[in-house]
């Protein structure tokens, strides 16, 4: 059991230290509910995306996967060794006019008008799919389905919570006086189902340029979802889907996997991600599965260790580059 943690109830397993059980096979009755899956990938999380894509293949069969790639130089060649995996580069999609606005977490907003699929599941790279999550994809009834906590969706009771996690309360009160945030559920934007064009390009570009948002695009999407709840357009809802094993602030029921579970779930490493010196069993299992799916069947643990060292060196280079840029900027001040 990881250090500095409370005992985990015997009915739950911890994906950080335990393997997930094998998911049920894909459900043929749900095969036509989605047209594809979109996974956001940047240079630093390609290794996580491998586990994510392997979990999609295991739980959803040969559904098309599109990598939404942040950065022209992000190498996704290994990911594209999986069958039916394609790539779109965010900076090419954005075009010259709005290109500077779309980087980092913000690039996922592009999919609402640039998605190659009419009905899609969006995933951050640091997620794992367990079971046929198309069970939740009722896109005949709804246009957007948020991924809420697995058991206890968080609802807001104070304006201080909104100010910290979603948006500047005073600014939005002037922008949209009728919006009522009380009792609304917070959805982590790392997993959701949507129809293309559910939120318009013009609206998203307008909101992106405001400086009132917390947690980047997550503030924007929660705002739009709450607004739609009031107006009825577009049709929005949420499903209890996401588990966050590494986040001690959440209840055990929203962190750990029920041993007798048959309900599809998404494991999400939102802050403390697996890395060299902090290995998570479920993540490693799916990284090994990716290697096997792409023809590598020997020395799997050694391959993961070598990849982890490479990821560590990448982080050090990015950190040094960032520090150098900051120092040059400081030296350039009068």
What can you see in these coordinates?
It is a single chain. This protein is of the alpha/beta class. The protein has a single domain (12-297), classed as Spore Coat Polysaccharide Biosynthesis Protein SpsA, Chain A (Alpha-Beta Complex). Helix content is 33%, strand content 16%. It contains nine helices and eleven strands. The protein has helices at 46-60, 90-98, 111-114, 159-165, 169-175, 201-208, 217-231, 281-293, 300-331; strands at 12-13, 36-42, 65-70, 85-89, 119-124, 127-130, 144-149, 191-195, 236-243, 257-258, 265-268. The strands form two sheets. The chain has a nine-stranded mixed β-sheet. It has a two-stranded antiparallel sheet with strand order 1-10. Helix 1 links the parallel strand 2 and strand 3 (65-70). Helix 1 packs across helix 8. The longest helix is centred in the C-terminal third of the chain and has 32 residues, at 300-331. The radius of gyration is 20 Å and the shape is globular. It starts with 11 loop residues before the first strand and ends with a helix.
Could you list some keywords that capture this structure?
two-stranded antiparallel ribbon, 9 helices, globular, nine-stranded mixed beta sheet, Spore Coat Polysaccharide Biosynthesis Protein SpsA, Chain A, 334 residues, alpha/beta, 16% strand
Calculate the mean pLDDT score and round it.
91
Q: What is the CATH class name? A: Alpha Beta
The secondary-structure element order is EEHEEHHEEEHHEHHEEEHH
Helix content percent band: 25-40%
Shape: globular
Binned strand content: 15-25%
Poorly predicted regions are none
DSSP helical segment count: 9
In total, the number of domains comes to 1
* Major beta sheet summary: 9 strands, mixed
CATH architecture heading:
Alpha-Beta Complex
Give the CATH H-level superfamily: Spore Coat Polysaccharide Biosynthesis Protein SpsA, Chain A
Give the beta-strand count: 11
Looking at the structure, the CATH topology is Spore Coat Polysaccharide Biosynthesis Protein SpsA, Chain A
State the end-to-end CA separation: 53 Å
Strand order of the largest sheet: 4-3-2-5-8-7-9-11-6
